[in-house]
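Figure 2 data, in text form.
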Amino acid sequence: MSQIDIKKFNRTVGRKKKGLAKFLRAFGKSEKKGILKIAKQAETETWKEIQCLDCGNCCKTMTPTYTRKDINRIAKHLNMTYQEYFDKYLEKRRDGDITNRSTPCQFLGKDNKCSIYAVRPEDCAGFPHFYRRDIRYQAAEKTYTNNMLYCPATLIFVEKLEKAIGEDL
């Protein structure tokens, strides 16, 4: 595994995003059997190539969606009230989602490590959301299409899915 070159990643994803988005649309509509097994294998192979915690690009360019449970847990960890934490770091968007006020994430350190990793939001803990029973829905709903623009691991995962499934869609 090597350090992630984000500039190189951005160039690569720029070249590949259209073709991979087309694949993901077809994948989302697919009735192919064994998709979860293929996805699990693609995930395993992806993590052999890349170390998520060495990157931090998601924390630099995206914001998680917080639940009330997340906010309570993190606020308690920081010895703050729910409202103090919310007022200092969060905002409610027009769509009702609660997100960070700004990026990069306030808890991302200079070493690309999360200072609240043990109590991070569930959205962060689950990211990049590879192996899910609703994997076809995630592809159809553009989750992977969006995430691969920011997450080198997602790009690798989608490429591995495409290679494993190929023209079978």
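Caption note: The mean pLDDT is 91.
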